[in-house]
Each structure stands twice: as C-alpha cells, then as structure tokens.
Amino acid sequence: MLCRFATLATLFGVVLLPLTATRSLPLDSHRAVYARDTTAAPVTKTKPSITRTGLAGISSATTDIQGAVYFFQTDHTSPAMMGYALYNLQPHQTYSYHVHVSPVGANHNCTATGGHYDPYSVNKDAATYKCDGTKPKTTCELGDLSGRFGSIKANGDGVAMSPQLFTDSYLSVSNMNPVHGRSIVVHNGKGDRVACGNIEDIAN
Ligand SMILES: [Cu+2]
C-alpha cells in the first residue's frame, strides 16, 4: 500500500514539480521570458526544463478510476513526451486510451468528447482500422495512444503507470496537431468509456 502510493507520488513529483516551477512563464515566447529576467525575482538563470505542458486529470462519473495523462515539450521544436499514472482500475485488466477531439461534457459525460483525434483522416473504416505503431502517420489515428504506444495494463492493485515516457513526434502540446483543449478517454476491454478528463495547461 505505502509502496504503491510512494511510487505514484514519486512519479507525480517528478513530473509536476518542474511543471509548477514554470507557472509564471508565458508559453509562447520563452525568449521573452529570459529578456525580462531582470524584473523577476528570484532570477532564474537556467532554462526551464519544461516549457509546454498538457495534463489531463482523469476521473469517472461511474467508477473510482483516477489518475493523469500528461504531455510536455521542452520547447516547441522538440517532440512531445507523454506518460500516465492511473489507479482504482480493475486489477489485471487492460484498458485503451485516446485523445478525443472535444472536451468532457458538463456533468463529466465522457460521451461528449466525440471521436478519436485523427487529423490525418487515417481511419476511413472502423471495421478495418488497424494501427501499426511503427507507422503512425499512415496507419493510426494520432489520438489512438494505446494503438500507438500499447494498452494500459493494471497491476494486481489496480494501478497502471506508463512503463516509460513515450516520445510523440506527431502530436504536440499546443502547436501542430495540438492536444490542448481536447480530452483523454479511457476505455475498458469492452470499449466502454469508463473515465475521462480534459487536457489542460498547468504552466500558465
Ligand atoms: Cu477513445
């Protein structure tokens, strides 16, 4: 128990503390930030390690699932990095997760999020759609995160952490094919939308 939460806390600490540290920096002109260092106290001489963030706090109206899916970029020319931590999943169950095109509905309605984000219109026919993670641009909806990077697998405690930070060279936080303003939906093995959350900036 302790171990499980300690691990979660560590993961969130690693990701969230640097993000929080950049709160006061405008997202779209990091050069401008350095130029006005003289008026800021305390003065930061080092380049912020993370400049663009998208965090979806995941929760559910129908289950106890909670957690987060996060994206960050060190600058607008670097690929986005993506990871997740989820808990209160069904032990040993497998879940899929996607970027959906629209935000979550007012009463935490995951259905309001619409379909998967597919900016290259790859999915012409749901019956034959098959994502090959090695060819994301031509075979995957870019929002098909489980198709591209692998499914979420809960451990015996119902916890799932991304086994690594995934490098996403096709989605960005807020530039080309942006995830900002969209949502993450987690589906169970039957495809039901069991949890969701909006992808929001936490660094402005
Ligand atoms: Cu989905």
Can you offer a commentary on this structure?
The chain is α+β, with helices and mostly antiparallel strands and 204 residues long. The protein has one domain: Immunoglobulin-like, CATH 2.60.40. The chain is 17% helix and 25% strand. The protein is globular. The N terminus is likely disordered. The chain binds copper (II) ion (CU). This is Superoxide dismutase copper/zinc binding domain-containing protein. It comes from Tieghemiomyces parasiticus.
Helix and strand content put the structural class at: alpha+beta
How many β-strand stretches? Answer: 9
Residue stretches low in confidence (pLDDT < 50, at least 5 long) are 1-38
Q: What series of H and E elements makes up the topology?
A: HHEEEEHHEEEEE
| Rg (C-alpha, Å) | 18 Å
Q: How many domains, as an integer? A: 1
Largest beta sheet, briefly? 9 strands, antiparallel
Text of the CATH class? Mainly Beta
Number of helices: 4
The CATH fourth-level homologous superfamily: Superoxide dismutase, copper/zinc binding domain
In the CATH hierarchy, the architecture is Sandwich
Q: Percent of residues in helical segments?
A: 10-25%
> Which of globular, elongated, flat, extended, rod-shaped describes the shape?
globular
Through-space gap between termini: 34 Å
